[in-house]
Amino acid sequence: MTVNLPMEQKFIDRLTEVIEANFSDGGFGVSELAKEMGISHSSLHRKLKSIAQQSISQFIRETRLKRAMELLQLQAGTVSEIAYGVGFGSTTYFSKCFHDYYGYPPGEVRKRYVSEPDADEDPFPNENSENQIRSIAVLPFDNYTGDESQAFLVFGMHDALISELGQLGGIRVISKTSTLCYSGSGKTIREIASELNVDAIIEASVLGADDSIRVQLKLIKAFPEEQQIWAQTFEVDMSNILKLYSQVIKNIANEIQVKLSPEQQSQLADSREVNPESYKAYLRGKYHLYQLTPEGVKKGMEYLHEAVRIDPAEPFAYAGLALGYLDLAHGPLGPHD
Fold first, then answer.
1. pTM over 0.85
2. Number of alpha carbons in the 13 Å side-chain half-sphere of residue 218
């Protein structure tokens, strides 16, 4: 079972609610959202970046685009009317953002999603007309270790893989927050892919987490028919967990035909070892920071200081501490969280 963090999802839900309530205000932006949330601009930026790997402006734009997609599917107006209705000040800019996010112009939504399918036509749309994988969602990892105390590790590996995939370029990777709600949802791969507008899904199960990590990953293409195109089980010592991530990224890039740059190849080949105990303390620290509560921040900072004490040269631990100190500087979330 993968642990979902309700405070994290609650924070994102509140952000979305505020943005949607201000769609009619084309001038509603970063400063206005921070004010509505009752926290500073910098604190909002830090929290959103740590949760969803997005800037505030990216999150606002994505929320508007998702609502626009819903309205276009419902034929609730012309492209221009919907663009202005969700807060875009220019139809041209809206069309560009829509194409960048979904891979096709807003004018094609009716043809792809609204038209009645022929008897032999697949009812699930494939957003990639060239039948290649250009967008991926990584579902929350399943914890099959038999030890619920390893939830921090399972959560951390899910977060790390999304972050690493996001560096590839050439594909769109759905944020962690958008995938958390699918933990134990019972929905099919194609249903999830259709809702997230992605071509493929990655499923993962952590099978062992003692001195070594054993994890099974599957890459599943959703359209036109569900097809598993890659699966592999990895087992490495905890000290080599970064090498595990690198190997997974190289394998996925090969399967979806994304060409790695020489710099990327070099970085993946040079993955360093970590101190197992320091890295575990770092993951525990981030796990508690993600809960976005004063108690979580306090406990998270304790673990991160422990990570530094164990290995003073560990950069991840210092990065985690920087996030924690921002939490302490700005205080707990306001009454809207």
1. no
2. 15
